[in-house]
Design brief:
mainly alpha
């Protein structure tokens, strides 16, 4: 082979390597990036639920200084060393969760994906988008100081002033009750195990994850249903003061005939759900 041919062959190889190195990410790389995004979102969700459950436990035992909701959890984070950094990490995590849910609604067009599932993912993406925005506002110091209870009453009061507002608030209450019941039933039926790669874990780990999923899902369902019941009562009585957020709903559990022990059970369940979110970050099939 002459030196000219060798020179041309070398140029072609260099050009080929350059093209391969600059090519756009393929489907495998994109899927892996979305998986990392989803796992970051589950971690952020887990942090907030563990903190909300811990705050609810404090309320049950007479030490409720902060509201047991997302606002109270963020205040708890902000009070820690490097709290501002941790808050912005939560912002990133919730943003990742919104992106991952949106990808499930828009990009996952497999034959097993029904329209209802994609719509559900779309709704979750919007929800976590609002959570991300609210967390970012809190981290930036522009989110105000009102908690979830005040916001629930304000939203209910504004909705009741609209034409047909009483019906709208009642429908929202019914939807929340239905969501809560669905979450609880799915938890009892252990439907969440279908989405986890439990085959890669030991039997002991599967048992722990099952306890986290069942207990956490039940508690989460009870809270959603409780908020929905108060929204429905507010609609029936046409009184926005009857509406309650997560904190007021949890505090109401302590006034039942079961005393604070019902609140303790729900609070422990919320902590369990936080642990289940961490397990989902590790073993969720994404």
């Amino acid at each position: 082979m002459t030196s000219t041919h060798m020179h041309k062959w070398g140029l072609r190889r260099a050009s080929s390597r350059s093209t391969a190195g600059s090519r756009a990410p393929g489907p495998a790389e994109g899927k892996q990036a979305l998986a990392v995004t989803g796992r970051a979102g589950f971690v952020a969700r887990g942090v907030v639920y563990v903190l909300v459950g811990a705050l609810a436990l404090q309320i049950a035992f007479g030490g409720g200084g902060r509201e047991a909701d997302r606002q109270g959890a963020l205040q708890q984070v902000a009070a820690q060393p490097f709290g501002k950094v941790m808050l912005w990490l939560l912002v990133v995590g919730f943003g990742c969760m919104a992106i991952w849910r949106a990808s499930g609604a828009l990009l996952d067009n497999g034959p097993s994906r029904k329209v209802g599932s994609r719509l559900l993912d779309g709704g979750r993406a919007v929800f976590y988008g609002f959570v991300c925005w609210g967390t970012a506002s809190f981290a930036a110091g522009t989110g105000g100081t009102s908690g979830g209870d005040a916001k629930s009453r304000d939203w209910t009061a504004s909705a009741l002033k609209l034409p047909g507002g009483q019906v709208l608030v009642g429908l929202v209450g019914c939807v929340l009750i239905g969501v809560g019941a669905t979450l609880a039933v799915r938890a009892v039926m252990r439907r969440f195990l279908r989405k986890l790669e439990t085959g890669k874990t030991s039997r002991r780990v599967r048992q722990i994850v099952t306890v986290l999923g069942v207990g956490g899902g039940l508690a989460r369902g009870v809270v959603f249903a409780g908020v929905g019941v108060f929204a429905l009562v507010a609609a029936v009585h046409f009184d926005s003061r009857e509406a309650k957020g997560m904190d007021a709903t949890l505090r109401t559990f302590a006034t039942t005939p079961a005393g604070p022990w019902l609140l303790v059970a729900v609070a422990v369940g919320l902590v369990l759900f936080g642990g289940f979110s961490f397990a989902s970050a590790r073993w969720r099939r994404l």
